[in-house]
Design goal:
The chain is α/β, with parallel strands linked by helices and 341 residues long. It has two domains: 65 residues; 256 residues, Rossmann fold. The protein has ten helices and nine strands. It has a seven-stranded parallel beta sheet, sandwiched between helices. α1 packs antiparallel against α2, α3 packs parallel to α4 and α6 runs parallel beside α7. Bound molecules: nicotinamide-adenine-dinucleotide (NAD). The site of nicotinamide-adenine-dinucleotide has 30 residues, from α3.
Amino acid sequence: MTVGLITVTNCLITVYIFLRLKERTVHCQPPKMIGIIMIVYQSILLVFDFVNLVFRAILLTLQAAWRIVVPPPKKSVVGEIVLITGAGHGIGRELSLQLARLGAKVVCLDIDEANNQKTVADICREGGAAYGYKCDVTSRDNVRTVSNEIRENVGEITILVNNAGIMPCKPFIKHTPEDIEKIFKVNVFAHFWMLKEWLPTFMAMGRGHVVAMSSLAGLVATSNVVPYCASKYAVRGLMDGLVEEMRYGGRNPNIKFTCVHPFVVDTGLAKKPRIRFPSVTPVLTPETAAEAIISAIQLEKSEVLIPFQAALIHFIVRFLPREVQKAFLDFMDTGVDEHDS
Ligand SMILES: NC(=O)c1ccc[n+]([C@@H]2O[C@H](COP(=O)([O-])OP(=O)(O)OC[C@H]3O[C@@H](n4cnc5c(N)ncnc54)[C@H](O)[C@@H]3O)[C@@H](O)[C@H]2O)c1
């Protein structure tokens, strides 16, 4: 695509130079010839580029379709050092337990020290390897200090799971500026601070995997969680941007990115979920959500919507006109109701 654009630009510049030369050297043959040769050359390049693009698009589409039918083998996480934020509760805790069972060394971070230590103790009791660190991921200093301790005591991590998140549920006008700042500090800025610490390590090692918890609310916004939705859209933007930057010029082929968009998970985060068709889009258990996330990590998927039905509905609805989308959302009547804490 980029090569195509550059070629088109080159072509236009060449035409411009040719026309200027033509203006100035009406009676002079050699510059005119050079101009014509360059235009022909650039045009041939452009045609080749375009044909190449069409073939690549067809091949990659077929490859993607084939991968749905026959998924590639899952990568092993044995020996990987996985850092998980918000490991003391909910999805983070379940990810820690399941990844440890698969043979990964798990580094658990949470602001809630007691819960975090419980996750670590449970993993160790099962014979897994886990290390616990109290960390407020909204604090750059705390993230830096804890990351240095991890480097010293455990080693360089190879998988980063930015999971910690909060979700106050109330109408937008009831959110105080402090609420909004806190949501962005935990749900968005913490991702930046962790990435600032560990992405350079991944780049130096030439490998690594970044996993970020967005939400279905990061794809389809809903009421009572406006700042939350905005924060989860931001996570998606952060991840998409990083994917583009890291792959530019084929520079970091072995650094993988997975952005996760779960529907409601039964962790207590969404205290009053409103679901009209629970058989179509059921509330997930943290166990099921963690299984699906780990599978996406092992398959190195760049984006995963959980459950699969949510992915299917989203895929169909997003191509519909905006007013039809709204009608569909009204019909589904799915979201979260306001609650106090
Ligand atoms: N539960 C859902 O329905 C659902 C749906 C979609 C996306 N998600 C996302 O999944 C992630 C995990 O959600 P969950 O349901 O497991 O939440 P949870 O409340 O069960 O667990 C979140 C954990 O993050 C920790 N945490 C909060 N602030 C922190 C901070 N400043 N520093 C360090 N740790 C902090 C908490 O102590 C807690 O242990 C969140 O990012 C959430 O937005 C959840």
